Amino acid sequence: MDGVKSGVMYNSFLKRFFDFVLVLMAxxxxxxxxxxxxxxxxxxxxxxxLFVQKRVGLNEKEFNIFKLRSMTVREVGEEGSFRxxxxxxxxxxxxxxxxxxxxxxxxxxFNVLLGHMSLIGPRPDLMAMKEDYKLEDWLKRCSVxxxxxxxxxxxxxxxxxxxxxxESDLTYIRELSLSNDFKILFKTFNKVLRRxxxx
Length: 199
What we know:
By secondary structure, the chain is mainly alpha-helical. 51% of the residues lie in helices and 10% in strands. The protein contains 7 helices and 4 strands; from the N terminus they run αββααβαβααα. α1 crosses α3 (108-114). The longest helix has 43 residues, at 2-44. The N and C termini lie far apart (40 Å). Residues 75-80 have low confidence and may be disordered.
């Protein structure tokens, strides 16, 4: 019970505090980096360098997630899956680099500042993906802010099965703590540097 209480206290205040401070400290590096990437994306293909999409956050509240565009802009009426695979023809050359280095996720640090997301947590899903879960599991995932990275990403990155990712997400929620967040943050940098397990 004490572990549960400490997890709730961390999630409600300290987690938000550390998220805000860490992202704010990184802003002098983030802003010029994004400006350079904006130019590179726009030079390669038409359309906005920023990709915006509705995702599900804390307590099932939807928000606009920000990403650097790594795919070609869809034409009117064009259909496409929200999942990608290795060799997906929609991914641009600069987009492939952004995905391998996870730089496409950098704008989500602004989502963290706005309170939509946390640095660490389950990755935010589309509302349409709710039917892929048992209701109990879906509600558990929505009981915390979604993360820029999480236990599922440092365990399997994008190569894990949906079942493996879900188990990692639920384990993270059960064992929510500051020390676990820092461990995941460290492992994330290690994974990104090695460019392991990404489509």
